[in-house]
Amino acid sequence: MKKSTELFIGLFTTILIVVLYWGVSFLKGENVFSDKRFFYAIYDNVNGLTISRPVTVNGFKIGQVSNITLHSENQAYLIVEIALEEQIEFTEQSTLEIYDSDIMGSKSLQLKISNKGTIATNGDTLKGTLATGLTSEMSEQFGSVKVGLDQLIISFNKVLKEVEDLSNTANRILLHNEEKVANSIDNVEAISEVIEKQASNINNTIVNISDLSDQLSKIDLVTFSNQMTNISKELDNLIVQINKEEGSFGKLLNNDSLYNDFSSAIQSLEQLINDIKLNPKKYVNISLWGKDK
Questions:
Q1: pLDDT computed for residue 293 by the predictor
Q2: What confidence tens digit (pLDDT) does each residue in 25-82 have?
Q3: How far is the CA of 221 from the CAs of 9, 210, 216, in angstroms?
Q4: What distance lies between CA 151 and its chain's CA centroid?
Q5: Dihedrals φ, ψ of 112, to 5°?
Q6: Strand partners, 253
Q7: Distance in angstroms (rounded) separating the CA atoms of residues 221 and 82
Q8: What distances in angstroms separate CA 227 from CA 218, 222, 230, one per listed residue?
Q9: Which stretches of the chain drop beneath a pLDDT of 50?
């Protein structure tokens, strides 16, 4: 009876351990009753990948990450072990790529199958790659936007500083020239009053200018231009005739002998007048007694 009890307790404990192991494996996503194959990949950065994350092919789960350890020879690298449950074939040139499996940035592995090379077997090491995920792109974009915002804020601060300096300068100028500014304002007001008082005269002047413009616009410029052209032609003809010694005026201007005769006559007349002044008795005889001499 005692042996039967001990056997029952041992069997129950064994079953309990098996169930516990199966339960833990089930919670981890492992299939205890399937034949597993193990493959490895080496990374310099797993980018947040953890154990038990799924391994997929085109979105279909074929296994999971079973272990992540440091490289024994070079601890700058990490060795990722995967356990494949599905019996699929792929070559040694296939790659294991870490990618973002959801929008929160959770990392998983996807097997990118290649048909080149020899078929991979249990325990082979595949090439590990890292995909640019949505979170990485968002981080890069946010980084560039942040840099742009920082530059914008710096530029805005510079503009505010320049505006502040300009305002201070304007205040200093106004304080030192307050009297001049007041006088300038008074002068502007005085000019405005004068213009307001002379508004009627300005309006009359504008009206007169408008009337003059209307009168000028009524002038027949074509007729006036034709008349001036005719006068110019007549003057040209007159000058041509004078140059050709046609007419009395042309002969008078161009005939040297007539000029010489006229000049000689004037000289003779001048000599006669001088002789009369010198010898008046020679030409005029006046007797008070009526006796002829």
A1: 46
A2: 656 555 555 578 999 999 999 988 999 999 999 989 999 999 999 988 888 899 999 9
A3: 136, 19, 9
A4: 18
A5: -100, 105
A6: none
A7: 106
A8: 17, 9, 5
A9: 288, 293
Tokens 């074939």 sit on residue = 89
Phi, psi of 116 (to 5 degrees): -90, 145
Tokens representing 41 are 């990949």
Beta-sheet pairing, 125-130 with 95-100: parallel
Answer for the pair 45, 130: CB distance below 8 angstroms, yes or no.
yes
Q: How far apart are CA 191 and CA 13, in angstroms?
A: 114
User: How far is the C-alpha of 91 from the C-alpha of 243, rounded, in Å?
Assistant: 120
Cβ contact 91:118 at 8 Å: yes
Q: What is the DSSP letter of 31?
A: -
Cβ within 8 Å of residue 76, ≥6 positions away:
44
CA-based torsion, 161, 167, 171, 174: positive or negative: positive
Residue 36, judged by CB atoms within 10 A of its CB (0-12, 13-18, 19+), counts as middle
Report d(CA 112, CA 94) in Å as an integer.
6
Task: Determine the Cα–Cα distance for residues 16 and 68; give it in Å rounded to an integer.
Answer: 29
Q: Report yes or no on whether pTM surpasses 0.90.
A: no
Q: How far apart are CA 38 and CA 100, in angstroms?
A: 23
Do 96 and 68 meet the contact criterion of CB atoms below 8 Å apart? no
Q: In one letter, which amino acid is 3?
A: K
For residues 76 and 53, the answer to whether their CB atoms sit within 8 Å is: no
